Amino acid sequence: MNKNSSGRVRAVGAGLLAALVTAAPLAAGAVGAVAGVIWLRCVYVVLAFRLVTDPAFDPHGYGLIVATVLSVPAALVTAVTVPFAFPRNHRARVARITTPVLLVSTILLWAAFFTA
C-alpha cells in the first residue's frame, strides 16, 4: 500500500483492477460479436448453397464444407463469451438462451451439410 497526495492509503493496482472490471465485458462483447458475425456468415453460406440451383455458385462445395466446419468453433466462442458481456445477474439467463439457440442452429447447419 502507498499514500496518495492527500495522505490517504490506497491499494496499489486498485485503478488497474477497476479498469479490468470495466474492460472485460467490453472485450467479451467484442469477441462475441465478431464470432457471432462469423457464425452468421457461415449460416448464410450454407443456406445459400442449399437454396441456389446454379452449379457455378460453389462448384466444388468447398464453401459449404468450410462454412459448416467453421460454424462449430464460431458458435462455441459466441456461446461462451456473449454472457460475459452482460452484468453478473443476467449472465445465467443469457447463457440459457444463447447456448441452446446456437446449438440447435449449428446442428441444423450440419443436417443441411449432410443432406446436400
Summarize the structure.
The chain has 116 residues and is mainly α. It is built from three helices and two strands; from the N terminus they run ββααα.
Structure notes:
With 116 residues, the chain is mainly alpha-helical. It has one domain. 73% of the residues lie in helices and 3% in strands. It has helices at 14-51, 62-81, 88-114, and strands at residues 2-3, 9-10. The chain has a two-stranded antiparallel sheet with strand order 1-2. A hairpin with a 5-residue loop joins strand 1 and strand 2. It is elongated, with a radius of gyration of 21 Å. 17% of the residues are buried.
End-to-end span in angstroms?
Answer: 65 Å
Structural class estimated from helices and strands: mainly alpha
Overall domain count? 1
What is the mean pLDDT?
A: 86
The arrangement of helices and strands along the chain is EEHHH
Uncertain parts: none
Approximate shape: elongated
Radius of gyration: 21 Å
Proportion of helical residues: over 70%
Largest β-sheet summary:
2 strands, antiparallel
Q: List how many beta strands DSSP finds.
A: 2
Which sequence of strands runs across the widest sheet? 1-2
Strand content bin = under 5%
Task: Present the secondary structure layout.
Layout lengths: L1 E2 L5 E2 L3 H38 L10 H20 L6 H27 L2
Antiparallel strand pairs: 1-2
Helix pairs in contact: 1-2, 1-3, 2-3
